[in-house]
Amino acid sequence: MQLITIRDALQQWCRDIDDIDARILLQHVLNVSHAHLIAHAEQALDSKQAQSFRLLAERRTRGEPVAYLIGKREFYSLGFTVTPAVLIPRPETELLVDLALARIPLDLPWKILDLGTGSGAIALAIAKHRPLANIVAVDFSADALAVAKINACQLDVNNARFIEADWFGDFNGERFNLIVSNPPYIADGDPHLTRGDLRFEPHLALAAENEGLDCIRSIIAAAPAHLVVGGALLLEHGYDQAEACRRLLSEAGFERIFSRPDLAGIPRVSGGALEIA
Ligand code: GLN
Q1: How far is the CA of 49 from the centre of ligand 1 (A)?
Q2: C-alpha to C-alpha distances, 183 to 7, 129, 143, 158, 163, nearest whole angstrom
Q3: Which of 45, 131, 146, 166 would be a feasible disulfide site paired with 50, CB 3.0-4.6 Å?
Q4: pLDDT tens-digit profile of 113-131?
Q5: Class of domain 85-273
Q6: Ligand 1 atom nearest residue 90's Cα
Q7: For the whole model, what pTM was predicted?
Q8: Atom of ligand 1 nearest to the CA of 236
Q9: So where are the chain's domains?
């Protein structure tokens, strides 16, 4: 097989994919930095590298998400392993972590519950920044929990445990200081589910019945029974669900209810706290 250079591989095999995506895939195959690709554009790929890169470029051309192709994604400045068993962590979800960390004291052993943890992105980002907190991370999917456990190991997190359950399924009266969740909230049948990365992500992690509000409703209704006095709930939701979330929080007895916009200005996280008796 004729040798191909970095420059030619990027030009010839990546015509239908984003230039940045092509470079990330080639960096992954060659295990080099972006600067290396630029400085060594004439370097030849060996046949194994060429074969791997060509295959990844073809899969990307067919729409597979870059994060699944390289098996990783950065979230909250931490490196996470991701597989098609988990949702790819999104930048807007960092807002949920920011709001959680703003509440969790550094010097107290707070108990935190993360519902629908997926890759463990939220739970592990919190665990890393609050070493005294004890995080319980729940998911319905055993395959997702396997990924979350790999991430806990790789990030050297010892203050998080993982439970397979259907939302609050298996808690025997255990109460938490804070509950966080990025539940599935896209309405079934929303055209977004048939576009871009979402086509390849687990439907279970993305879509919910009743205009996407089904899981949010279940979590809000059951949360007070799993919170300590004064405990709080923070939820990520869809662009048009803030008002519904605030209403549900109010109906469930939460106070100090609020919504916060993400970096794009879209209301993305809502929450509230139980009254301090
Ligand atoms: N924010 C994601 C999206 O719209 C969905 C995440 C979720 O359903 N929790 O792509």
Answers
A1: 34
A2: 42, 22, 17, 24, 16
A3: 45
A4: 999 999 999 999 999 999 9
A5: alpha beta
A6: 1
A7: 0.95
A8: 9
A9: 4-62, 85-273
